[in-house]
Amino acid sequence: MDLTDFVSYYQLCQAAVNEVGTKLENLDADYQLHNAHNPIHHMEARMKDARSLFRKVKAHDLPLTFASIHDHIYDIGGIRVICNYQADVYTVAENLLAQSDITLIRQKDSIKTPKASGYRSLHLVVSVPVFQAKGVKNTPVEIQLRTVGMDTWASLEHKLRYKTDVDADTVAHYAAQLHQYADEMDHMELGMQAIFHALSDQK
């Protein structure tokens, strides 16, 4: 693989993350100024490291070439948006996608249709124009939107799957517990959201 091409593309993906990050920061500032409730709790940007990238290429049975990474891997750069309530997730997604220079490439709603593990999140892959000296390049960025509770759950589930050396039976036991807790948390989140909306309507 040509490392020069990869380094240039990695820099391009970083620039695209910066572009989307600025858009989200502008939305955040607008919400704070004009809304009684800010749907954005906080945001985190990240770039996929080389080890994770190569592991994903291998998992998808792709050749380890720049062309395959460019054409098939859309989450080198990513932003996670953490919200208080599930409705907030869709508000932020709708407001972001309404912007004229954001193009939706792919959307996966694991809130309405959770994964088998219990994982919940709204994943968007968007393309955003990045202006460079040699012209404009539309570049993909992955955006994960989830609630505070979903984010805590996902971090723990990721640690269980990838960051521990416990035996398979223990992993299976904890995974079953996490699945149960995901369902319970979903019920509680919707209940708290209903209370919040009811209180907001009384103002």
TrEMBL record:
Record-level GO BP terms: guanosine tetraphosphate biosynthetic process
Top-level lineage group: Bacteria
Domain RelA/SpoT, chain residue ranges per copy: 45-168
Associated pathway: Purine metabolism; ppGpp biosynthesis; ppGpp from GTP: step 1/2
InterPro entries per record: GTP_Pyrophosphokinase, NT_sf, RelA_SpoT
Record protein name field: RelA SpoT domain-containing protein
Organism: Lacticaseibacillus manihotivorans DSM 13343 = JCM 12514
Source species taxonomy: Bacteria, Bacillati, Bacillota, Bacilli, Lactobacillales
